[in-house]
Write a structure and sequence with these properties.
The complex is a heterodimer of chains A (117) and B (113).
Chain A lengths: L3 E2 L4 E5 L4 E7 L6 E7 L6 E7 L4 E4 L2 E6 L4 E6 L8 E8 L12 E2 L3 E6 L1
Parallel strand pairs in A: 2-11
Antiparallel strand pairs in A: 1-3, 3-8, 4-5, 4-9, 6-7, 7-8, 9-10, 9-11
Chain B lengths: L4 E3 L2 E4 L5 E6 L6 E7 L6 E7 L2 E5 L6 E5 L5 E5 L8 E8 L8 E2 L3 E5 L1
Parallel strand pairs in B: 2-11
Antiparallel strand pairs in B: 1-3, 3-8, 4-5, 4-9, 5-6, 7-8, 9-10, 9-11
The chains are: A mainly beta (117), B mainly beta (113).
């Protein structure tokens, strides 16, 4: 039961262009969404998040868009840089008893982004 | 500030053995979560602890257990190891668990032979 799906295993982009990574989810209870970046031999690094009450959140070169009706979110990286080459995971969480739910994230399978100089 | 630290970084065990993995959260963080990541997949939730109490458990067998200590560090224990337990085990901490992003350590790579 894959509640969070990243259907593109890999994405290749030229330096300076836009990278768009996509993520779909099925659980309507998810109310908080995050993107993480992972380099080999390192743990995932938090990039950006969005609450379900918003449809867009920006942080520098990174923008996350949320379309609740389509149960879809995307991460835009503009402009893309070679250092952005990594595996990108989207993750989601749902409210739980006691409200301390955000330690439990459901991750997608990841998308390998390669940015060519 | 030190990030989330995990030990050991690599471990090789034999089927049927027991393993203990350790995690120290970022200073001030009271919530610790454990994740298993197998090759080609995203991390999968195992446990969350907050203020030394278990707050969540993923779909893992009872061979997996964990605990959190008064200093908020945590241990993950796995009994009767199977070949399928070979994975990267990630620990993550957050300030309270509510609306605060998880910060991950670099993981422990467990190989079961």
């Amino acid at each position: 039961d894959q509640q969070v799906k990243q259907n593109s295993p890999s994405l290749s982009v030229q330096e300076g262009r836009i990278s768009i990574l996509n993520c779909d989810y099925t659980n309507s209870m998810f109310d908080y969404f995050l993107w993480y970046k992972k380099y080999p031999a390192e743990g995932p690094t938090f990039l950006i998040s969005i609450s379900s009450i918003k449809d867009k959140n920006e942080d520098g070169r990174f923008t996350v868009f949320l379309n609740k009706s389509a149960k879809h979110l995307s991460l835009h990286i503009v402009p893309s840089q070679p250092g952005d080459s990594a595996v990108y995971f989207c993750a989601a969480s749902a409210p739980g008893a006691g409200g301390t739910s955000y330690g439990k994230l459901t991750f997608g399978q990841g998308t390998i982004l390669t940015v060519h100089p | 500030d030190a990030g989330v630290t995990q030990s050991p970084t690599h471990l090789i065990k034999t089927r049927g053995q027991h393993v203990t993995l350790r995690c120290s959260p970022i200073s001030g963080h009271k919530s610790v979560s454990w994740y298993q990541q197998v090759l080609g997949q995203g991390p999968q939730f195992i446990f969350q602890y907050y203020e030394k109490e278990e707050r969540g458990r993923g779909n893992f067998p009872d061979r997996f257990s964990a605990r959190q200590f008064p200093n908020y560090s945590s241990e993950l224990n796995v009994n009767a190891l199977l070949l399928g337990d070979s994975a990267l085990y990630l620990c993550a901490s957050s300030w309270s668990g509510d609306n605060s992003p998880l910060h991950f350590g670099n993981g422990t790579r467990l190989t079961v032979t």
